[in-house]
Design a protein that fits this description.
alpha/beta, Alpha-Beta Plaits, TIM Barrel, eight-stranded mixed β-barrel, 47% helix, binds ligand C2E, binds calcium ion
Length: 652
């Protein structure tokens, strides 16, 4: 910009100077023509000017104010005339030569000092040699000295003005440009900052996101390799978050996530990294724990943070979590497998409802222990006495009568004892053995129904189907064939399908549900509320009942009662508006049963009434009675010695 300014000023001042000089030369030419008009041609030849001619010249040029001196030279440098009447003098030979030879004026600025050496004033003169021609021949030259001080002062002042204007303009321009560039760079900077923030932080909670966690994890692992410390990773998932979202609204859901983030962040050490992985999933990285047990203890402390209810407006909501823990180097030796192990552990915590679960190879698909168990299951499906169905009654909350049973699978493993379904059903699902297991359950159940039918009127029995079963019509064929073979009315068989299974592949599941409905087998949505689907999506399906997951029910007795009741009520009202029967699972105390009855829940199931028991240990009121006698039972009585309240399943 400085160079531009300097160039601009230089060019302008040169243009002005050139113009002034051209004007001076033009003036010198006209003075010459006035002067030489009075000089006879032969004066140049002889080198002498007559005094009267000199006087004429003086008179001719008298009127030119700018003229300081006029001298006339012959071509060889003889002085013909001097306006200052100096008889002697010499021309500037080179310039005289140049002017006469080139027939062009030669102009030069010269400085003249007037007065004495000290107090003198300097004046600038324009000294022009103008060739004098007579009849086309150059005969000499007129040296015209013009006062140039005024002009050069004017040029200098104009140059100063131009300089000022240019400098001012440029400063202004610079300021403008600077402001623009500054603003733009500020904007760029802040958007780069925001992008970086978005790239590494979760926008809702402000916690680190998955990427940042991965980065911290890598660093912690590098440290661990260097110093031999243990890295703990906990994955935490909020139970039944989707329903909180559905029944209370997404704003409340977001509010809850923010509060969870605050509790987690507020309670952990500075070096622990709390991240939100998306949805209701959080991760906590413990970069330096003493041992696996230490990480486990830390995770349990985290879970304790969820004991006080969360306040959403004036609603106290009790929220539970499932946490999976894995450690490096104990369970994994790199970041991604550590994540996977923690995920396996979280899945275990969730399905077994353990709260906190530390990774164990038993739960992992690829571990040898799993493969052994899978082989055992394969074998067990071929024998009669290992896999059994136990039955748990469903009670009508208005009459107290048993109105149905649920068949739950147990495995009497030859070396490991009685195994709960959570230990082998997921294994069967992952390995494809599930179809055989389902067929086994259906066969056993329908055979049992046939036996009971001989004794009287049995209540309907529900069998659990897995997600894999309901994507093909094969299961309906199996059911039809079994019912026909044992001559059991379809109304006695029901199926329960988990919420997540129902929505996993609707285009394949819905036709299967429709066929079940057509043949008269009722379908219930199981574990309702813990999946991540919206209630209305499920209610459009051809189903007859809905089983509220026991997590909600258990809560109704706890300190988050109010919130749970709101959610359960929302579910019940919506289900009823779609004509569905509502069953509450996991009812363990009379107060909860009473609360459920108030919320118009239709049926209840749980340890309050009875755990799942083998068919020969069912209570009298759960068993078929002589035809017509069932409706005589008016109240629920419990057999002595089996107090269902607080009971654990006797077979576990
Ligand atoms: P589910 O269908 O939700 O079954 C209810 C579970 O809750 C049963 O666990 C039952 O014993 C337990 N339970 C009942 N009342 C109470 C109570 O008051 N309090 C508590 N805390 N728990 C109660 P179980 O028998 O261990 O079954 C676990 C899951 O395994 C079942 O959950 C079901 O999803 C699956 N399952 C069981 N049998 C089969 C089967 O034959 N086929 C398939 N595909 N899945 C099965
Ligand atoms: Ca069930
Ligand atoms: Ca259930």
């Amino acid at each position: 910009m400085l160079a531009l300014g300097v160039t601009l000023v230089l060019v302008t001042s040169n243009v002005m100077q050139d113009q002034a000089r051209r004007d001076g030369v033009a003036l010198a030419r006209s003075i010459e023509s006035y002067a030489s008009g009075s000089v006879p041609e032969q004066a140049f030849t002889v080198g002498v000017l007559a005094p009267e001619d000199a006087a004429r010249v003086t008179a001719q040029v008298d009127g030119f104010r700018e003229l300081r001196r006029l001298r006339m030279w012959t071509v060889d440098g003889t002085l013909l005339y001097d306006s200052l009447a100096d008889a002697t003098g010499f021309p500037d030979g080179d310039r005289l030569d140049a002017a006469t030879r080139q027939r062009e004026p030669d102009a030069q600025l010269v400085t003249e000092v007037q007065g004495d050496e000290f107090g003198g004033t300097e004046t600038t003169l324009l000294d022009v040699y103008v060739p004098v021609q007579h009849g086309g021949v150059v005969v000499g030259a007129a040296e015209v000295m013009l006062d140039y001080q005024g002009t050069s002062d004017a040029v200098a002042s104009a140059t100063r003005t131009v300089t000022l204007v240019v400098a001012g303009g440029l400063v202004l321009l610079w300021l403008l440009l600077f402001r623009t560039v500054w603003n733009a760079s500020r904007r760029l900077q802040s958007s780069a900052l925001e992008n970086a923030r978005l790239a590494l932080l979760d926008s809702l909670t402000g916690l680190p996101n998955r990427r940042m966690l991965a980065d911290r994890l890598e660093r912690a692992i590098a440290d661990s390799h260097a110093t031999g410390t243990t890295v703990g990773l906990a994955l935490l998932d909020i139970d039944r978050f989707k329903d909180i979202n559905d029944s209370l609204g997404h704003d409340r859901g977001d509010e809850l996530l923010e509060q969870v983030a605050q509790r987690l962040r507020g309670d952990l050490r500075e070096e622990d990294v709390v991240a939100r992985l998306g949805g209701d999933e959080f991760a906590i990285l413990f970069p330096d724990v003493l041992s696996v047990a230490d990480a486990d203890a830390a995770a349990r402390r985290v879970r304790q943070l969820f004991v006080p209810p969360f306040m959403l407006g004036d609603l106290a909501l009790h929220v539970d979590t499932s946490i999976g823990v894995a450690c490096l180097p104990d369970h994994a030796d790199d970041g991604s497998s550590l994540m996977r192990m923690a995920d396996v552990a979280m899945y275990t915590a969730k399905t077994h409802r353990l709260g906190v679960s530390v990774y164990s190879p038993e739960e992992d698909d690829s571990s040898p222990a799993r493969l052994v168990l899978l082989g055992d299951l394969h074998r067990a499906l071929g024998v009669d006495d290992e896999l059994q169905l136990h039955y748990q009654p469903k009670i009508d909350l208005r009459t107290g009568r048993t109105v149905g049973l649920e068949a739950l699978m147990r495995w009497r493993h030859p070396t490991r004892g009685m195994l709960p379904p959570d230990l082998f059903v997921p294994l069967a699902e992952q390995s494809g053995l599930i179809h055989d297991l389902t067929r086994y359950a259906l066969r056993t159940c329908v055979a049992q129904l046939a036996r009971w039918s001989e004794d009287g009127d049995p209540v309907p029995v529900a069998v659990n189907l897995s997600a894999h079963d309901v994507t093909s019509h094969a299961v309906v064929d199996v059911i039809e064939e079994l019912l026909a073979r044992h001559d059991v009315p379809p109304a006695l068989l029901e199926v329960e399908i988990t919420e997540t299974a129902l929505v996993s592949d609707p285009s394949r599941v819905v036709p299967v549900l429709e066929r079940l409905s057509e043949i008269g087998v009722h379908v219930s949505i199981d574990d309702f509320g813990i999946g991540n689907t919206s209630i209305s999506q499920l209610l459009d399906l051809p189903v007859h009942g809905l089983k509220i997951d026991r997590l909600f029910v258990a809560d109704m007795a706890g300190n988050g009662r109010e919130g749970s009741e709101v959610i359960v009520k929302a579910m019940v009202d919506l289900a009823h508006s779609f004509g569905l029967q509502v069953v509450a699972e996991g009812v363990e105390d009379a107060a909860t049963a009473e609360a459920l009855r108030r919320l118009t829940v239709d049926q209840a199931q749980g340890y309050l009434y009875s755990p799942a028991v083998p068919p020969d240990r069912l209570r009298a009121e759960d068993l078929p009675r002589d035809r017509g006698a069932r409706h005589a039972v008016t109240s629920v009585t419990h057999e002595s010695g089996r107090t269902p309240q607080g009971a654990t399943p006797s077979d576990r």
